[in-house]
Amino acid sequence: MITMTATAAETSTVQNPAFKPQIPYDDFAKLDLRVATIKFAEAHPNADRLLKVQVDDGSPEGRQVCAGIRQWYDPQSLIGKQVIIVANLEPRKIRGEISQGMILAASDLHPSGGGTDDPAGRDVVVLTIDKPVKPGSVVT
To answer: What pLDDT, on a 0 to 100 scale, did the predictor assign at position 139?
Structure first.
């Protein structure tokens, strides 16, 4: 009988993908990260992996964001959560719906693959804050 175990280096590679190249601080400073409160969420009508999310970002009209988190979140469970968004992405149409930003999330890779709700072994967790702040608050 042959048994194989992953070494610490192999396990950490699976759980922690390679870091991206360093960037100058000025590039990072271009990002406009804001706190937004989710007001409404529903399944995207034309995409199996997306949710269509309405957020209060502190502006009078708010904004809509299409987020690839459908298999990890029930839309109703997101309502009222305060999340971090990238507020200054150019709007783009995704499967017929406009997306005006990006909700940040962490992706936890599981060494065995296949864990949680994703056959590839990923678990996606939306970044939230631990204490309520006003929608539109700047993340620094």
So the answer is: 96
Answer yes or no: is 15 within a domain. Answer: no
Q: Which two tokens stand for residue 29?
A: 């400073």
Distance from C-alpha of 99 to C-alpha of 40, rounded to nearest angstrom: 14
CA distance 109 to 35: 26
Which residues on neighbouring strands pair with residue 43, listed in sequence order?
51
Whether 94 is covered by a domain: the verdict is yes
Q: Which of 107, 103, 105, 106 is nearest to 122 (CA)?
A: 107
User: 50: domain range?
Assistant: 30-126
What is residue 118's predicted lDDT score, i.e. its pLDDT?
A: 56
Q: Rounded to the nearest 10 degrees, how much is the dihedral formed by the CA atoms of 8, 119, 77, 80?
A: 50
Burial degree of 13 (CB within 10 A; 0-12, 13-18, 19+) = middle
Q: What is the mean pLDDT of each run of 10 residues along the chain (140 residues)?
A: 42 64 96 98 95 98 97 97 98 96 89 55 92 97
> Would you say 55 and 83 are in contact if contact means Cβ atoms under 8 Å apart?
yes
Count of domains in the chain?
Answer: 1
Contact at 8 Å (CB) between 53 and 97?
no
